[in-house]
Amino acid sequence: MDGRRQARSHVEPANGSPLEVFGIFLKLGLTSFGGPIAHLGYFRDELVVRRQWIGEAAYADLVALCQFLPGPASSQVGFCLGVLRGGGLLGGLAAWLAFTLPSAIILMAFALGASALAGPLAAGVLHGLKLVAVAVVAQAIWGMAKTLTPDRERAAIALAAVALTVLTAGWFGQIGAIAIGALAGLWLCRAERNAPVGRLGFAVSRRKGAIALALFAAFFVIPALLTAATGPDTIFSGVIALFNAFYRSGALVFGGGHVVLPLLQAEVVAPGWVSNETFLAGYGVAQAVPGPLFTFAAYLGAIMTPMPNGIAGALIALVAVFAPGLLMVYGILPFWDALRLRPAAQAAMRGANAAVVGILAAALYSPVWTSAILSPRDFALALAGFLLLTVWKAPPWIVVGLLAAGGIALRLN
Fold first, then answer.
1. Contact 197/337 with Cβ under 8 angstroms?
2. What are phi and psi of 124, to 5 degrees?
């Protein structure tokens, strides 16, 4: 790419305020349906085309950065745009809070009211929501496989990740699959020539970036050590364990928001904090609300059995699952221009992204498929939802409504 394109992709600080950023992203948080890719389209229309906060080339470079890093890509892009427009970190936090708040409140309210659901009608709705999860996860795998495993080498990495995840239960197998995928990528995935170029120059100092990266590492290690060291029956230990579980999940999400499903399932279902049925029902509801899929954490934090739960649990889980992605992108901004051009970094990320396709494929079978598909009629309804999403491109909230109604019909017949 020539010098003129590089100049156009440089980011200049914009004049604005955190309050302005909050108002605009609150509107986006209320109206942005359709998942991360759709969110990036909404951001482009509102902030690149209409308001001209950032140029097209710089926006493309910013999206490339957030897709390269672990974490929820659309929330990371929104956070960075808030940093740009709102004068620094406070603007970024205003953008994240406003974009996240609407869906988090909806999912927390659903969790707090879920205990009131009883009877065949409620059972049918919950079963339909589990069928939504089958359709949505299958759609995510279908789309991610075409993009992230386009050749034999990456397909083999994905298959190995399936095997490792199945044979090694819990989060350890998932971390191992991502690590092995990255190492395999260094060996197998260096041939691709579509390396990103350009320049992304946010006004974040290297000192601030280094502090953010140090905090990212500290929050990954210290809560895990405290969880192992404290007793299991205190409120303090419960808070630390909750934060650790959701932070670790948020730190390991490569390749898209749906990858958080198997990570969170290993953290909250395996130890008995949340039942598998309740977990999948909430995941189905999360498809029908605007904003980031990571707000599913608010539902889990509110509905889980051990303390803290309720509103306090929702807030802890919500902050913990988003924190690693935001710390990582803020920390890497001043170093990105040098890192992104390294072939080894690009190859490792291709391998890691292929591995997460395998992790999500393993989750499609268990717990998603095994908990929801109990009869041929369940399979037919889930398949209809999958085709609505992939062939007819129906909005997810419509599919949620139709499959919830179908679940009621199956239970009443």
1. no
2. -65, -40
- Residue 384 structure tokens: 């209809």
Residue type, 78: G
Summary count for the chain: helices (H), strands (E): 20, 0
Q: How far is Cα 57 from Cα 200, in angstroms, rounded to an integer?
A: 9
**What pLDDT digit, counting tens, does each position of 325-351 carry?**
999 999 998 887 777 677 887 788 788
265 to 140, 230, 270, 354: CA distances (angstroms): 17, 23, 7, 20
Residue type at 369? W
SS3 205: coil
270 contact partners, CB below 8 Å, separation of at least 6: 169, 170
**CA–CA dist 296, 276 (Å, integer):** 14
- pLDDT of amino acid 96: 97
Provide the whole-model pTM: 0.81
Longest CA pairwise span in the chain (Å)? 67
Task: Quickly tell me which residue has 């717990």 as its tokens.
Answer: 367
